[in-house]
Amino acid sequence: MVGLIIAILFSWFPLGADRGVNLSDTLELGIVDVYGDSLGKYAMGQYILRFGKESLEEFGGQSLGDFLQARSGLFLRQYGPGMVASLTMRGTSAGHNAVFWNGLPINSPSLGQMDFSILPVGGFDLAQVHFGGSGALYGTDAIGGSIHLSNELAFNQGLSFNTSNRFGSFGAFHNQVQGTYSTAGFSSKTQVYRQQATNNFPFTNLAKIGTPEERQDHAAVFQWGAVQDLAWNLSSQTQVSTSLWWNSNDRQIQPVMGSNNRDLQLDRNLRWVADLHHFENSRVWNLKTGVVWDKQLFNEQADNRTSQFFLAGELDWEISKMLQSKSGVRLTDVRGNLSTFSENDFRVELYQSTNIRPTEKLGFSLNLRQLVYSGNFAPFTPSLGMEYTVFEHEQHKISGSAALSRSFKVPSLNDRFWIPGGNPALLPERSLSGEIGMGYLYNMKNRKFNAKVTYYRMAVDQWIVWMPQPSYWAPQNIQEVNNQGLEVFLDSDIPLSFGVLQLTANHAWNATQIIKTGDSSRANNGNQLPYTPAHKSQATARIKNKSMGYFINTHRVGTRYISMDNQTSLSPYLLVDIGIDRKWSLGKNLRGSMGFQVNNIGNTEYEVLRLRPMPGRNFQFNLTISQ
């Protein structure tokens, strides 16, 4: 292991002449942009959904959880506006989805998951969703899929400033200021954001006799943060980049209906990453290091802190037109200082990815990974993906894809060490999944239509569940779940005489069947997992021209059972948002946009989780100024 690390470090300084950059995934970036690895390069057979900065800006002042709930087929278990939001993908639990920021895994090592309510969309420029088991590519937690957040920088852009302001119902206010400066060899971007919401929305209290209408009086949220991105072109072959993200979030925990709790939670998050890329004729070397530090203080008593320190190196090599390879190693030092225990966890993982293209129409991806944590071997993790162009002629293309993957989740620090109840002997959760898909692309001048359909099956074993014991709760590897589902993605651009009509739609069907629960009665076997809707749909229509933009967005969440016996459920709901935006300019240098939108225009009363009210109709005004 030490020899491999030394070899990677010394290979940064290759002998020989400057031969430029020929790697296909970096040619178009060249010296203009900060280099970023292609997320889907070694993910043949699986689908990646991309949300750019323009889409994210519509949700300024809101969280990534709000964005994904409204604009994707993903379902998030939200405990209220601004409250804890956990993701379920392909019927898995919150801990079965890995989250990355600029290549760093940022899931909480103590909880084993991410709270999407404390990820403001102002903290990054690009969000990508990788559907399906991808443990061989990314490591632990990526059983249902993974979320990848990244910041973007460019060179030779000069000096610019931007401010974004949003005002809305229920005390919502958001302000973000951004400044960028770049030359041929240096690039910098600084962002500072501040947002708050009183969340004093009216709701029908279902827990009181007569179901009176009341106002929420304990759900305020205040958040601020700063992001600093820097990059240097040290030469035509070497580039250095770094990003620092500080985020602070204070909130009153919205009580469940019928409760008088006045809980408070404070979250502090510091994330830093640095990359050194070196480009050779057909190779890209990367050395990455970073730190993720999290603090959570509950009711000023339970103080939980975790730190993760990363060091990774990899070589991405285009051996020939038919063969590409990426080899790497990642070291992670996890340190937990929780309210009931203090423990460390050192992890080493080796990975190898290979692309093979026998013909221009046929390609395969083979990925291998082995992780060792605290002296324990996680399951060896392979995956195999395939893409094939069935038909291609002028504007039409029909393609097929398939993938088979194994993934895993290392037990969290709380699972292993919490006092009382933690079980150091817990086994990693593991999954085996397969999928097959078809895609159709029509592209003619400004007219485009793209469709993707995927069917998948998944089995998750050794699922960790906290079970009651005589005097406390303890985790056990007892649950087994089989999932199957269908995902449909559609998007189209249609030119109009006064602009362009953009249509996107997706639908997810997830049948998540409990096979084993640890209950000797087996009464719940065959039931749908709680709070896992079988159906989730989303659609957006936008009309855009040079100065005006209009949109209508809908998303529908199907029935959710609230317990494993499937006896009680929450009703489906449909939400509709509409908005208008106008671009403007003043002189040569000043420009911006003004917008207005109405969310939940039908004033629908709904609950994502039982007895957790959500806002009805609300309004938002947006003003952006750029120089």
- Structural class of the helix and strand makeup? mainly beta
What is the CATH topology classification name? Maltoporin, Chain A
- Strand portion: over 45%
Please give the radius of gyration in angstroms.
24 Å
Q: At CATH's second level, what is the architecture?
A: Beta Barrel
Shape, per Cα inertia axes? globular
Mean pLDDT comes to 91
| Unreliably modeled segments | 1-31
What can you see in these coordinates?
There is one protein chain. This protein has helices spanning 2-10, 24-27, 53-57, 64-71, 135-138, 413-417; strands spanning 48-51, 75-78, 85-88, 97-101, 104-105, 126-131, 145-150, 158-168, 172-182, 186-197, 202-204, 213-215, 221-233, 238-252, 264-279, 283-298, 302-320, 323-337, 342-356, 362-373, 376-377, 381-393, 396-409, 429-444, 447-468, 473-496, 499-516, 535-544, 548-557, 560-561, 569-570, 573-586, 590-599, 618-626. The protein is mainly β and 627 residues long. The protein has a 22-stranded antiparallel beta barrel. Strands 1-6-7-4-5 form a five-stranded mixed beta sheet. Strands 2-3 form a two-stranded antiparallel ribbon. It contains six helices and 34 strands. The chain is globular, with a radius of gyration of 24 Å. The protein has a single domain (2-626), classed as Maltoporin, Chain A, CATH 2.40.170. Mean pLDDT is 91; it is low at 1-31.
